[in-house]
Specification:
- By secondary structure, the protein is an alpha+beta fold.
- The chain has 2 domains: 87 residues; 230 residues, BirA Bifunctional Protein, domain 2 (2-Layer Sandwich), CATH 3.30.930.
- It is 37% helix and 20% strand.
- The protein is built from 11 helices and 10 strands.
- A 7-stranded mixed beta sheet has the order 1-5-6-10-9-8-7, with helices on both faces.
- It is elongated.
- 27% of the residues are buried.
Length: 344
């Protein structure tokens, strides 16, 4: 009985040495037969119980020899197959000039925001940045926002903590209150940055967006100064013979207040989803700084006056590039973003 088992093991050894391996398919077949989870060599180990005690050592050595022979044959054949495949691959000529590669660029919102900053910088506005997480005083109270104002509710504001109230800023006007508290007059600043509001995401609105807010406080500042500043911005931003209008509005921190519209650059007037079929698109809110805001921030409202405005970067970018859906700016689709490689 043991002699037959020894002969079987030697037959496997001979088969391993004679097995023809010529390609990847035959190599895989060899692996499955001799080294796979159900290989034929497993039966040899089970035969150990049928070997006489005095011959068990010799049989164990033979079985290990068969297994190691299979492993060695598979490894050497695999190295030859890999080397042959590598040799057949065309090697690149490293001396050739490199091909054109995609050059990264700024995000379209960054392009538009930088252009807005450049326009106001030419008018003497300094750039100031503030925290995106701010307290209730700087984001609401100092800006003359009543305690019962809807903007304070959970459905409009993302609160980080309630006591004391800390929130993701709903407007970059919070940066302006930080600057006004320092009392270094006159003030002529813009504060670009990201803001957050709990709004339904649509083609015209998002829960996060960007603003560039401006503030000018000095003696004898008038609404005429505000109007001419914004008309200059609109002409420089869009470089078109656009129409501009100011509509009376209300904001807690300005009085009087207005909203500025420009003629829709996407549809040209007949109406579209962006302008809500009116032919006009609101691009900013503005007004004269409410005396209560000046007083809250320690500025003499009898001596100083000022104006403020807030411009939506996304809305401006939609008009500037004639994009009909605001959500495209946040989807990171390279097919869309690759169209905006200019850094000017």
């Amino acid at each position: 009985m043991s002699a037959e088992i020894f002969e079987k093991a030697n037959a496997f050894l001979a088969e391993i040495e004679a097995y023809e391996i010529s390609d990847a398919a035959s190599l895989e077949a060899f692996r499955i037969r001799f080294l796979g989870s159900k290989n034929i060599l497993k039966g040899l180990f089970a035969e150990m119980r049928n070997i006489e005690p005095e011959r068990k050592k010799d049989f164990g050595l033979l079985v290990n020899k068969v297994k190691k022979a299979a492993e060695a044959r598979f490894e050497s054949a695999g190295d030859r197959a890999t080397g042959s495949a590598a040799a057949s691959v065309d090697k690149p000529d490293l001396s050739l000039p490199a091909g054109n590669r995609f050059q990264g660029g700024r995000h379209p919102l960054s392009i538009v925001q930088n252009k807005m900053v450049d326009i106001f910088s030419r008018l003497g506005f300094a750039v100031v940045e503030g925290p995106e997480i701010d307290d209730d005083w700087h984001n609401f109270t100092a800006l003359n926002t009543p305690e019962d104002h809807p903007a304070r509710d959970m459905q409009d504001t993302f609160y980080v903590q309630l006591e004391p109230a800390m929130m993701l800023r709903t407007q970059t006007s919070s940066t302006q209150t930080h600057v006004m508290e320092k009392g270094q007059l006159p003030i002529r600043i813009i504060s670009p940055g990201r803001v957050y509001r709990n709004e339904t995401i649509s083609a015209r609105a998002h829960c996060q967006f960007h603003q560039v807010e401006g503030l000018y406080i000095a003696e004898n500042v008038s609404f005429a100064d505000l109007k001419q500043t914004l008309i200059y911005f609109a002409k420089e931003m869009f470089h078109r013979d656009i129409k501009v209008r100011l509509r009376p509005s209300f904001f807690p921190f300005t009085e009087p207040s207005a909203e500025m519209d420009i003629s829709c650059l996407i549809c040209g007037g007949p109406g579209c989803t962006v302008c809500k079929k009116t032919g006009w698109v609101e691009i900013l809110g503005c007004g004269m700084v409410d005396p209560n805001v000046l007083t809250n921030c320690g500025i003499d409202a009898e001596k100083y006056t000022g104006f403020a405005f807030g411009i939506g970067v996304e809305r401006t970018a939609m008009l500037h590039y004639q994009v009909g859906d605001l959500r495209l700016f946040f989807e990171n689709d390279m097919r869309f973003l690759s169209q905006f490689r200019s850094v000017t």
